[in-house]
Amino acid sequence: MSTYLFDPPPVAALAVRGLAQRFPVKRLFFVGRNYAAHAAEMGFTVDKSRETPFYFTKSLSTLVPSGATLPYPPGTRNFHYEVELVVALHQGGFEVTPEQAPALIYGYGVGLDMTRRDLQQAARELGRPWDLGKDVEHGAVCSELLPLPGQVLAPSAIGLQVNGQTRQQASTEQLIWSIPELIADLSRFYHLQPGDLIYTGTPEGVGPVQPGDQLRGWVEGVGEVAVAIGPVDGPQV
Q1: Closest CA to 160 of 83, 101, 222, 105
Q2: Do the beta carbons of residue 121 and residue 127 sit within 8 Å?
Q3: Measuring CA to CA, which residue among 31, 32, 35, 33 is closest to residue 174?
Q4: Bridge partner list, 207
């Protein structure tokens, strides 16, 4: 007799460049408004001297690999892309300092934070959580990981194309909070664990996609992520 009433989900994992072993993923953390120009296009300014980073999470089941076709999700008419540098952790930590943070790093990937922007903005205006806008099925895409244990990635170009046209183009040097600062700050609120992924924020130029669109994102020296947008999955609002 089975221990479970139904089959448990398989372990979520990402490919690792140059290795047969895969990286098991535990949690998905996302940083909001970590590029000043993106914050501005969303109608906000960020004062690092007075503010701290803020975060949201996505369900592990939303994680999909590069190369997938993403169904256009139900309940939206404004489905957006956001390309991001992803930091993968292979050590846990709690209340670590920025100086200690690099020891937690396993490597890096290129991610897409797919967003039902109309639902996110409606929730924001009502003071409600962003879950319907952000925790979208198939809404957390990630490339294979580049192992760089213990290393803080040097400033790198980041960008995204839709159907071959560049929509986002910036540098990770423009991150408001650096990779060590993010890890240290997040560890004030969570006991970070091996397998945690941190999507570090998106630059300006976010925008909508339509069924049939082809997306390609990149971080220089790390890799690329690519997806296609499939047909509408259910009713739009």
Answers
A1: 83
A2: no
A3: 35
A4: 81
- DSSP annotation of 95: S
What are the distances in angstroms from CA 153 to CA 18, 156, 203, 217? 19, 8, 17, 17
* SS3 assignment, position 149: coil
78-101 pLDDT, tens digit per residue, is 999 999 999 999 999 999 999 999
Do β-strands 54-58 and 13-14 pair in parallel, antiparallel, or remain unpaired? unpaired
The span from the CA of 111 to the CA of 87, in Å, is 10
DSSP string, 175-219: BSS-HHHHHHHHTTTS-B-TT-EEE----S--EE--TT-EEEEEE
Domain range list for the chain: 13-232
Predicted confidence (pLDDT) per residue in 109-151, tens digit: 999 999 999 999 999 999 999 999 999 999 999 999 999 999 9
Two tokens at 235? 């009713």
Helix H or strand E encompassing 234: none
| Residue 20 C-beta-side C-alpha neighbours within 13 Å | 0
By CB atoms closer than 10 A (0-12, 13-18, 19+), residue 35 is buried
User: Residue 110: beta bridge partners?
Assistant: 85
The pTM score is: 0.96
Considering only CA atoms, which of 39, 231, 28 is closest in space to residue 141? 28
Residue count of the chain:
237
CATH 3.90.850.10 for domain 13-232: yes
